[in-house]
Amino acid sequence: MRAAARPPGLGMSLRAEALSLSRDGRPVLRDVSLALEPGEMVALLGANGSGKTTLLRLLLGLLKPDAGRVLLDGEPIASLSRRQIATRIAYVPQSHQPTFPFTVAEMVAMGRAPATGWDRRRTADTITGEAIERVGIAHLADRLYTALSGGERQSVLIARALAQGARTLVMDEPTAALDLGQRERLMTLLQQLSADGFAVLATTHDPDQALRRFGRAIALHEGHVIADGPSRTVIDRALLSRCYDIPDTVLDRLGGAVP
What we know:
Blueprint lengths: L13 E10 L2 E11 L4 E5 L6 H8 L7 E6 L2 E2 L5 H5 L2 E4 L11 H6 L3 H4 L5 H14 L14 H14 L4 E5 L7 H16 L3 E5 L3 H7 L2 E6 L2 E7 H4 L2 H8 L3 H7 L5
Parallel strand pairs: 3-8, 3-9, 6-7, 7-8
Antiparallel strand pairs: 1-2, 1-4, 4-5, 9-10
Helix pairs in contact: 5-6
Function: Part of the ABC transporter complex HmuTUV involved in hemin import. Responsible for energy coupling to the transport system.
InterPro entries: AAA+_ATPase (IPR003593), ABC_transporter-like_ATP-bd (IPR003439), P-loop_NTPase (IPR027417)
Keywords: ATP-binding, Nucleotide-binding, Translocase, Transport
């Protein structure tokens, strides 16, 4: 899903060019290229061990490839500081367990650290409040993060990402531990952010969700990109059978929206 035309400078493009990485002599990713533009919602599909997590870590600048490069708004990510990267790209994990009982407002305020350090100036407080309002969790601001449900925690982590100032969200199975209602509310929020020019890249094992909610899908298999295009074009039984080593007879039993 692409957003309507926006004023320039509101988004960051993320591009991977021919990324390859091996560990202990075993190829993990081989010649992986992709581009993520403002306003896109992209699902990253692939079986466990296909290289999804490694790819995310490369895109976030947490790993260095053996070959290839990652560009963030045209700049090599390897040339940027961690603070510069954090104000452009935010990582939202599948789950998060804090050590201390911070309030929701304090958790979101931590997102300002890359831009302001731990400065609690009014500007930072204002941005934190705007992020909380944007995600629709103002009623949770004074609640302890440790006391929230899984869906509420995911919303807090997204608000923290927005407080960073990042316009690109990289998410690792954001709905994996959520119930049906929580999943739908979270996906609606992500679609709203995408429509406002945010770029969203999320791993998922749910092809039905990728079909219904994501405009584009990328599939990894044994470290290769084997499909990249509109979700309703690339996600089919043949792709799922190859990605997850599932015979057609099993896919028939699973049902769902996949053609």
